[in-house]
Design a protein that fits this description.
The protein is an alpha+beta fold. The chain contains 11 helices and 12 strands. The termini are far apart.
Length: 385
């Protein structure tokens, strides 16, 4: 025969009913039930005050918790997360500190817990380790304007069906987004005015990093030059073109694009004009409100300063040493050496190149960029350095 299960509430009822009998001795009854007399008197008191309900266990939760985050503050955390769905607990905490002043704000771990309780945290997918063969050769900035990174964010259509492909320009050291322009074309004629505007407002960078896409670079052209990058070179800007198929070499810029896709692309604007307005608002928040861990939780606007290299707006004059020969590149991208034609690149049309004698060869330069070497006696095709 199975053992009978003794219910705790039944035990307490039996104890109390027998304890209420005037002839019962409390000490003996407590020994029989295996409890202390203090406990016995407690259950009798509760039964007299609350009846059978008083025999139930009370919650051990404290009436107050000084460390618990107030409900109003929890709502503020949730509100900020909904406003900035890509911001993590550390960034949200920094924003709370700025908005609330000296008031106590919860720790980043507490904010993460609050977000988790309301389902606003998505588990991260594990990252696959990958090698970056060209990363060691990339330019490392040490101050603002040492390196600008540029790229086109993948395009989408506005609600009226127009193509929108944002061009993004960013200072790598400070993370300051210099411009985001909703473009409908990637042609040089459309892109160059955006850079002219950026150069006029912020000056010239030392280096510009881009991928190999049009209009920044061309894998079919000498030194990967395009009309746009040739203009940059003439302005004295060094080119830092990443390896083909290696977007991780411009990873910080790509990470910014991920946030842009999450916060802007998912809700397309009514038209291109409305989309540009939302991009301008996003850029303002990114630069002036969004703290960055790499900047010691400061915003890009607190760090960035314009370049001391100003932009005149005039066509730059490329000057070469006196011992160089100078040639003007034709519309077809060619120069003549000893009466024979040598093809360089159509991207250099109308620009002057310098010919540096080097034993029985000529080094061909465009500004500070060596395009390659050619045989000055037989004018063989250009060989890259």
């Amino acid at each position: 025969m199975p053992w009978k299960t003794v219910d705790v509430m039944d035990q307490r009822k039996r104890f109390v009913l027998r304890a209420l009998d005037p002839t019962t001795r409390m000490a003996e009854l407590c020994r029989e039930f295996g409890i202390a007399r203090r406990t016995g008197y407690k259950w009798v008191k509760r039964f007299k005050e609350h009846g059978e309900k008083g025999l139930e266990d009370l919650t051990r939760r404290p009436r107050g918790s000084p460390s618990k985050t107030p409900g109003e503050l929890q709502l503020e955390v949730v509100k900020l997360r909904l406003e900035h769905p890509t911001w993590g607990p550390k960034k949200l905490r920094e924003l709370l500190k700025r908005r609330l002043g000296r008031r106590r704000v919860p720790a980043a771990s507490t904010i993460a817990k609050i977000l988790g309780e309301v389902g606003l945290v998505q588990p991260r997918r594990p990252r696959r380790p990958r090698t970056d063969p060209g990363s060691s050769e990339r330019v490392t900035p040490e101050r603002p304007n040492d390196l600008w990174t540029v790229d086109f964010k993948g395009w989408w259509r506005t609600r009226d069906g127009k193509r929108c492909e944002p061009l993004t320009i960013r200072d790598d050291w400070s993370r300051f987004v210099l411009d985001i322009r909703a473009m409908q074309s990637t042609a040089t004629e459309s892109v160059r005015p955006v850079f002219e505007d950026a150069f006029s407002r912020y000056g010239l960078p030392a280096v510009i990093r881009s991928d190999n896409g049009s209009p920044f670079a061309s894998t079919r052209s000498v030194a990967r030059l395009t009309k746009l990058s040739a203009w940059w070179t003439a302005l004295g800007i060094q080119l830092d073109t990443i390896d083909p198929g290696s977007p991780q070499q411009n990873g910080a810029h790509e990470r910014m694009h991920k946030d842009l896709a999450c916060e802007i692309e998912r809700q397309p604007g009514r038209d291109v004009r409305a989309q540009q307005s939302s991009l301008d608002d996003w850029r303002f928040i990114f630069n002036t409100e969004r703290p960055h861990e790499a900047l010691n939780m400061k915003t890009p606007a607190e760090i960035y300063v314009p370049s001391t290299q100003t932009y005149s707006g005039q066509r730059p004059e490329v000057v070469y040493p006196e011992h160089f020969g100078v040639r003007t590149v034709s519309k077809g991208g060619r120069i003549k050496i000893q009466g024979k034609s040598c093809f360089l690149s159509e991207a250099l049309a109308s620009w002057q190149v310098g010919l540096e004698p080097d034993q029985d060869h000529l080094k061909i330069w465009f500004a500070e960029l060596c395009l390659g070497v050619t045989d000055c006696l037989f004018s063989v095709p250009l060989m890259r350095p």
